[in-house]
Amino acid sequence: MENLEVNERDLRKFFASYWLLHSAIYNFDQGFNNQRKRRFTWAITNYYYSLVFVGRLFMFLAADLYYIGHSDVANFFIGYVVKRGGGDRERGAPALKFNECGEFERIDIYGNPKNNVSTDDIISYENIASNLSIDTEKIENFGRVLKQLKNFRNKNTYEAFVIYAQEYHTVLTEFIFSATDKVREVAECHLKEACKVFFNFWRRKSEQFVSLLNHEWVIPMTLQILRKHDLPTEYVKAIINRGFYFENEEIYWENLIRVRLIMERKPGVELNRRFKEICSITGFRAKQAIIDDVFSDFKELIEIDRGGN
């Protein structure tokens, strides 16, 4: 019988963390597709949310938790203090915690306190960098990119794009093309870094996690969904391969045949069975928590009071 080196909780964390990476990949590909169709506002917003999921992935791998709100994720990696707004500023911001039982629960996490010490309810971006063996400078650069894109998303930029669409203003057109290209280039760089961090994190735990990358619910699922939604699949597949393998300094020194064997490894029968038994796409509660939050935002719009007019 196959000797399983991985436990149930780690299998669930592996799958949950891959869902975060999948979301980063999907948002990036949506952005690339929108950019090709000259939907530049949408494209830049897609690239921003791709990096938000990269941030959630880093937090989750390093600390078994991540902020629910996209602004909290961005502010955390910028280095700002992250806490609740309004009159409840002594509490941390809402987050999802992967507990010891392998389940998700909502908690409050205070981010980047001045004393820079992590406990059960306090965390800093330096801790994330340290736990994932990422240079602090890289994390800080990632935070600066998130800050710029968050500010862009929060501004009323539509007027410029309306002018562009109506008038095809020459100077504005040049700026829009150049800006979107630059954002895509930077987002692609951080997405490859996320692939590398994900791969190395799980490979260090067990080579069996590497074999799970070829499970039908992992990379093949991502590529299948991209094709189903008519998104540029081969371009993104190349990014994944470069991030996981060909630009990953932990394995790039191995010969090409060895790298190909790593890429093509598949899970054994027992590992495949346990993975399907323990993990469920439809039962991933962290995904549902984000969906519920988005739904509530639209529900509030539906319930806007006309004020008697």
Briefly summarize what is shown.
With about 300 residues, the chain is an alpha+beta fold.
Provide a descriptive summary of the structure in words:
With 309 residues, the protein is α+β, with helices and mostly antiparallel strands. Helices cover 65% and strands 6% of the residues. The chain has a domain at 8-58 and 137-290. It has helices at 8-36, 40-63, 70-78, 125-131, 136-154, 158-167, 170-205, 207-212, 219-228, 233-246, 256-264, 269-278, 285-302, and strands at residues 65-67, 93-98, 104-111, 122-123. The chain has a four-stranded mixed sheet. The longest helix is centred in the middle third of the chain and has 36 residues, at 170-205. The protein is globular. 35% of the residues are buried.
Structural topology:
Layout: H1 8-36, H2 40-63, E1 65-67, H3 70-78, E2 93-98, E3 104-111, E4 122-123, H4 125-131, H5 136-154, H6 158-167, H7 170-205, H8 207-212, H9 219-228, H10 233-246, H11 256-264, H12 269-278, H13 285-302
Parallel strand pairs: 3-4
Antiparallel strand pairs: 1-2, 2-3
Helix pairs in contact: 1-2, 1-7, 2-3, 2-4, 2-5, 2-7, 3-5, 4-5, 7-10
